[in-house]
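Consider this record:
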Amino acid sequence: MSWPSWSVRDVVTGRPRVRVNQVGYLPGRPMRATLVSDEPEPVPFLVVDEGGRPVHEARSHPWPTRPEPTSGLAVHVLDLGDLPPGRHRVLVPTLDAHSHAFRVDAGLYRPLAADALRFLTLQRSGVAIDDEVAPGYARPAGHVGVPPNRGDTAVRPWSGPDAPRLYPGWRDDATYDVSGGWYDAGDHGKYVTSGAIAVWQLLGAADVLARGPRTAAADDLRDRVLDECRWQLDWLLRMQVPPGRPHAGLAFHRVHGVVWSPIPGPPHLDPTERVLHRPSTGAGLHLAAAAAAGARTFRLADPAYAARLLAASRCAYDAALRTPDLLAPDDHARHGGGPYGDDDLSDDRYWAAAELWLATGEERYAEDVARSPHHARDPFDERGFDFDAVAAPARLDLALHGRTGPAAPLPDHDRVVASVVAGADRLRAVQDAQPWGQPYAPADGWAWGSNGRLLNNLVVLGTAALVSGETGYLDAVAAGADHLLGRNALGQSYVTGYGTDHSRHQRTRSFGQDRDATLPPPPPGALAGGANSQPAPDFPYDDRLVGLPPQCCYLDEPTSEVTNDVCIRWNAPLVWVSALLSLNRA
């Protein structure tokens, strides 16, 4: 395979040739780096401490495939050994090459977990952001029914010119309070099928923290995670169609402006009229799954709230069974928001049934789980799960929680656990075949939001660690995080504020300082979508990326929507993974 020669030159220029996790490494976990070099033989390298004293010396391992397919680069892998705590740097004297400075510290991921979570707080709709919560990011509440928009407190279902074609036979003349929740991405839309899996990830992060050592810091972080979960779950409940209205029990698929809001622009200045799009079966099933998971999480701390969530979940599930094929049409993002469509809801039913069984132990849900074709299938592959592929979330929770709880143990729980471990083993095999440490290298290219998909693969690996007790899976999680934080073809940390060469110019409306100096920049902990080498047939791609190797299809520019957007569905698994690594149980 060959790539344009200029692409390799552009990638290498301006970044250290030794790619490391620019934040650092955890004691007792793998410490590896990648050297960009076409030298055919091993080369000597050393690691020096802050005072310049050598603490490790070894020789590189040239990667046998040249160029390496995902990056288009010739590379070597460097094993940095087991470095002591402190600040370090890698030097390759014969090539005059070096790395950024990095730390070895057991507490590296605690601040990242907190900042990744704070990003979700800053995405809150319908509430003012206090400067004490995030200095420099204070703003009035957005979409609360005051000019220049009518907000989300009394929203009408959409009746625009295209509505009869997209939603034949649907008409609803009521108004609904759908305030609250998180803005989904760099826009001001709110989407049930994106928001449900994001809050499910956070509920999982709370569970991860509960499994770790009880410390004041871990308890504080868990409390804040649960507070964010509750904020989003409350919004999901408001999106449920009430009795007596068309498609009662399901959830409205999305709420946003009739046209895309101006970019940049904070939510309280959004001038667009907000509308609700028709309920969908998929949205109802995602509501059912997330609310049931929430009911399980809050059962002891707030039984009344858990009961409310569980009632909504049951209602949504039953409504989805009555109306099994009300799909969200793909309007190609022409009406002010993304479609979040999905034409196969069998996995969504599996996920909802699994969460309801875990929350209730009732036989009807156990039967639905067992009857689902997905229960016998393998839901894990290197492309990673997402909002439109949710059999994996079902399997992960069945493995984690299927032995205890209100139900008798899942009859085939051992098989379910084994399937998670087998899926994790395949991801480790993918990871071992990469010189960059990532368990993600799909042959058909890197998808929009590849960083989120990669993180979801790390969640699979982390879950395998939790259900098996094998620390090798935690090693794999740590190595995958290295890739996101700088050990990649671009030498780019994709998390704002973390690393030396980190993403700074994500495409967002609220954090649009690149285009309007009165607005704040993206906050620390905001994850960029990442490399995207898959042009979509119905969405403009970036011509500057055409012909580049998959890993190199990224631009840290506010104009690059297909690579540099932000999304709650990517930051939520970043919280999960950072929370797990913050425990650092060697």
In short: The chain has 15 helices and 14 strands. Residues 216-238 form the longest helix (23 residues). The two ends are 40 Å apart (CA to CA).
